[in-house]
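Renewal narrative, Specific Aim 1. Our central claim is that a sequence can be written position by position from structural information alone. The example that follows is taken directly from our test logs and has not been curated for this report. It begins with the structure tokens describing the chain, in the order in which they were read.
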């Protein structure tokens, strides 16, 4: 069936249901604040400065604090997968390695920001972000921009950008706390306090999560050992306004995770129950100074960002040395950004960055006869600029470019253009964008055991076109997007089956730019308030991925772990006090391997949630996940949670 035939058949189905999913909502609530979400909603991630959605030509999703609270989600990844164009793979229960794919792009091609600070894992082979320890405890908002975004955000933004924004106090003093418990001896605690008193705004928040878990090696294949996890998180910020035009901003985020996992058993050398466990420590810090020149409409920001990741794995049966892996990565970035309101119809954002990355990594248990640790570093300097023009009423055009100079592969440039046209009193917006992305080789790919310093950056070109229409005082919305991306020079492992000159020094293989891929599809989304109490949302995504690597045995295959079809549906009802909702998530079949030999079956998951207020500031809530106890896999032989239930209470003061 062609992509257009799938579109029309799916469109007819959703009309029969009466609604489609809304891209800026994960779970609808019948509140005036949530209903007000529309084309006037201001986002930052798309243009690195505040803009209403009616002026943004890129495809953007916004999850607000109302959506996050209504979903009762513990993990940020579980929120993301309810939005259009995003799929997720988790190697077991919450706490296991978790990857997110945007529009079929590789999981390591998504740039993740926490309060604007890029967070990845420099010491891992691919440098991707592991969502396993990112919880919703202090998250107030998530902005997702789909499609390549390297002009404004640099390396890794091939698939898109996810900006996680933590809470910001608005009262002189305020706080919150929650407690939750449920299946598999799971407990989840959060608390925080802060305030805004004159020129000073401050906040401190923490979280604790613990679960006995399930066998990561699927029980249907014989898994028995529970792989539990424990996660702790802390966020803090201080902001001080010296005067209306000068502000100092300091914020930080720290997380620690201890998790058991399964893999290839050390004693039997087969995949199954194992005795391995790992510890991950993450830290980010930010210091920024913002100063404005209101007379010329110029806002300047100078900032220093620091990230640190320390991952260590252990196996008690590995030998005298039980540490099987360690990877320590640091990233330091100094940047300047300017935002200039040149005239009522012309504005610009521009800046420069200097980034330095280092890693230390080794596999101590397997070093024989002597340790062979890797220590390496690289730097990249960048300059970017983007111009926004409103030549006609409600028509916004955006164009930008970027130049990066890497200490190993040299210079690389990217470009982007986008347009948004708001019609019918800004109730309908037509959008289109073309953008380029790139991902620099990681330090491990350049200098590791299979490193290759001749690597070029991975690159992509993507475009999308779509519309969004709001009706009946924003009580109904419908949207459609078509997207296509071509990625080239993808870095994969070359196994020396066909001998090349580099095989003389790397006989077991090496990393090389040998792959290409194509992804295209449609995203349907809508929302409708059937009554003041009843609302429904749903979305459907069709993603057609293809391996375009000429001369390989996988040419023409579907990319692994990317389902072609996925959908979400939620119905919410607001009683006089209580609220209830039912959500359905569907994921079609996919393949676990590039050869397309191992199929992963499709699945449908049903969740129900309810909440009841006690007083003005306290709420009791409960949820059942996977109500039908459906067995499913997002990765071959890795187990997922069956039917589970949770009870909780949360309060604000």
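The sequence written for that structure reads:
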């Amino acid at each position: 069936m062609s992509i257009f035939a799938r579109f029309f058949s799916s469109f007819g189905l959703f009309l029969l249901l009466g609604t489609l999913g809304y891209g800026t909502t994960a779970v609808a609530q019948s509140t005036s604040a949530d209903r007000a979400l529309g084309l006037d909603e201001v986002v930052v991630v798309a243009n690195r400065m505040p803009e209403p959605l009616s002026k943004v030509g890129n495809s953007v999703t916004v999850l607000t604090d109302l959506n996050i609270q209504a979903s009762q989600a513990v993990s940020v990844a579980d929120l993301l997968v309810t939005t259009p164009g995003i799929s997720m793979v988790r190697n077991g229960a919450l706490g296991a390695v978790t990857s997110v794919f945007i529009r079929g792009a590789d999981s390591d091609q998504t740039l993740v920001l926490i309060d604007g600070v890029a967070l990845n894992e420099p010491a891992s082979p691919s440098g991707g972000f592991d969502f396993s320890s990112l919880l919703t405890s202090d998250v107030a908002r998530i902005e997702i921009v789909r499609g390549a975004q390297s002009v404004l955000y640099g390396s890794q933004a091939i698939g898109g950008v996810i900006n996680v924004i933590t809470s910001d106090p608005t009262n002189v003093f305020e706080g919150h706390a929650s407690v939750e418990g449920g299946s598999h001896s799971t407990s989840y605690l959060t608390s925080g306090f802060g305030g805004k008193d004159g020129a000073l705004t401050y906040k401190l928040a923490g979280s604790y999560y613990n679960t006995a878990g399930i066998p990561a090696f699927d029980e249907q294949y014989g898994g028995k050992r529970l792989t539990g996890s424990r996660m702790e998180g802390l966020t803090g910020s201080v902001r001080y306004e010296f005067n209306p035009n000068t502000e100092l901003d300091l914020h930080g985020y720290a997380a620690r995770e201890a998790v058991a996992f399964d893999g290839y058993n050390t004693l039997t050398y087969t995949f199954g129950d194992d005795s391995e466990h790992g510890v991950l420590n993450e830290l980010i810090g930010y210091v920024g100074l913002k100063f404005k020149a209101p007379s010329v409409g110029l806002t300047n920001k100078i900032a220093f960002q620091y990230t640190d990741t320390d991952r260590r794995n252990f196996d008690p049966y590995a030998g005298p040395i039980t540490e099987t892996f360690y990877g320590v990565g640091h990233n330091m970035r100094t940047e300047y950004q300017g935002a200039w309101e040149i005239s009522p119809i012309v504005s610009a954002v521009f800046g420069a960055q200097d980034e330095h990355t280092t890693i230390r990594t080794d596999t101590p248990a397997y070093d024989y006869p002597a340790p062979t640790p890797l220590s390496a570093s690289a730097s990249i300097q960048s300059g970017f600029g983007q111009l926004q023009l409103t030549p006609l009423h409600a028509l916004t055009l955006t164009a930008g470019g970027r130049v990066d100079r890497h200490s190993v592969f040299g210079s690389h440039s990217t470009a982007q253009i986008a347009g948004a046209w708001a019609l019918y009193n800004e109730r309908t917006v037509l959008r289109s964008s073309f953008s380029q992305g790139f991902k620099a080789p990681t330090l491990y790919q350049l200098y590791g055991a299979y490193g290759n310093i001749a690597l070029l950056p991975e690159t992509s070109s993507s475009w999308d076109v779509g519309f969004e229409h709001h009706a009946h005082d924003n009580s109904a919305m419908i949207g459609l997007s078509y997207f296509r991306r071509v990625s080239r020079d993808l870095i994969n492992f070359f196994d020396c089956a066909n001998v090349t000159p580099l095989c003389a020094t790397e006989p077991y293989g090496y990393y090389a730019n040998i792959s290409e891929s194509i992804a295209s599809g449609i995203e349907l989304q809508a929302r409708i308030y059937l009554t003041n109490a009843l609302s429904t949302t749903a979305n459907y995504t069709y993603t057609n991925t293809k391996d375009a690597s000429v001369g390989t045995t996988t040419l023409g295959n579907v990319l692994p772990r990317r389902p072609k079809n996925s959908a979400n549906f939620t119905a919410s009802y607001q009683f006089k006090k209580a609220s209830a909702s039912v959500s359905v998530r569907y994921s079609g079949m996919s393949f676990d391997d590039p050869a397309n030999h191992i199929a992963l079956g499709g699945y449908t998951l049903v969740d129900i949630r309810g909440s009841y207020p006690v007083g003005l500031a306290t709420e009791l809530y409960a949820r059942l996940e996977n109500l039908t106890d459906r067995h499913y896999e997002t990765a071959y032989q890795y187990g997922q949670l069956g039917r589970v239930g949770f009870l909780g209470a949360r309060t604000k003061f």
